[in-house]
Design brief:
By secondary structure, this protein is an alpha+beta fold. 39% of the residues lie in helices and 11% in strands.
Length: 380
Amino acid sequence: METAAAPHADLDQDACYRAVLTRDARFDGRFFGGVKTTGIYCRPICPARTPLRKNMVFYPTAAAAEEAGFRACLRCRPETAPDMGAWRGTSNTVSRALSLIEAGALDEADVDALAGRLGVGERQLRRLFRQHLGAAPVSVAQTRRVLLAKTLIHDTDLSMAEVALASGFGSVRRFNETFQALYGRPPSALRRRGERAGAAPGVRLSLPYRPPYDWDAQIAALAARGETVMDGRWTRELTPEIDAASGRVTVARGRHDRLDIVVEADDLRVLPAVLARIRRVFDLSADPAAIAADLSADPVLAPLIAARPGLRLPGRWVDDGEDAPSDRLPPDFDMRLRARADRWRPWRAYAALHLATAGLNMAGLDAADIKETRDEPQAA
């Protein structure tokens, strides 16, 4: 199968291919490779034999690959890659739009309505998506539904009708038609019995993150602000007023750079929004390498980040803020440090977190004070 597809301008296609040749895990989730002879797209770490360079084209997101006509590999399962994207840290509008799409904003409404919620024009939103993601908003929403459905098919015992409902498809018919068009087979044919989770209560999934992850610090921070933590597990009750369903969510540290999630809800349609909120609370989309590379240019931050490379931002379950959480400064931030903090963008919140974790009180520091701490021992 020959698929006509233009590569993304911001990706070094040859560098991507070198990463695929070595199956470099550092690039997992950063890009996806489409194989023009098969019509399949894969993660950089796919164990299948690497195609010839002339037969591969690379995209920044799974949505861009699917919009170009490729379908997800059933072997490396792109839906299990770390939640990454070329947009992160570059466009607040795209970041907010993706959060809304992940919560189901385009399941029942159109792009014009989404743009209105973001305070931008529809054409501007489409242009930003094309620039940062290489795909249209509708394609991103479709890919989100398909990849979540694939995860539920592989990893849970939900019926196909329940999978359709839980992944945001408006009907079982639309669900079946989409999978038939993408994979040439019904969705039930993708289920391999050995992967099914059995009859345990709730929807049990695992969500990937990019290591390192300081789980102990994250769970301690959530407990310190009054959230329910017991035996290393975080729990939250779902309510109709906030979540449009009743039930419970439990999150624990899993194996192989993943968190284990159990969602018990009386309406499966809330699953996409619940998963989006879990990703925000536990900061699963963070890219520690990118954050460290940018912030370590500051001589004060460099040793702090080296000492605690896996710190994550404890997010809020409900977050209506218009600015990106990664760039928010704490309320006690000393405005005399504004010029220095501007050099930390778009990771100002991580910089403030590292300073606070090291015991440096932002409100009591000025630029000279910070400089003097450069050679002092840092908190472990």
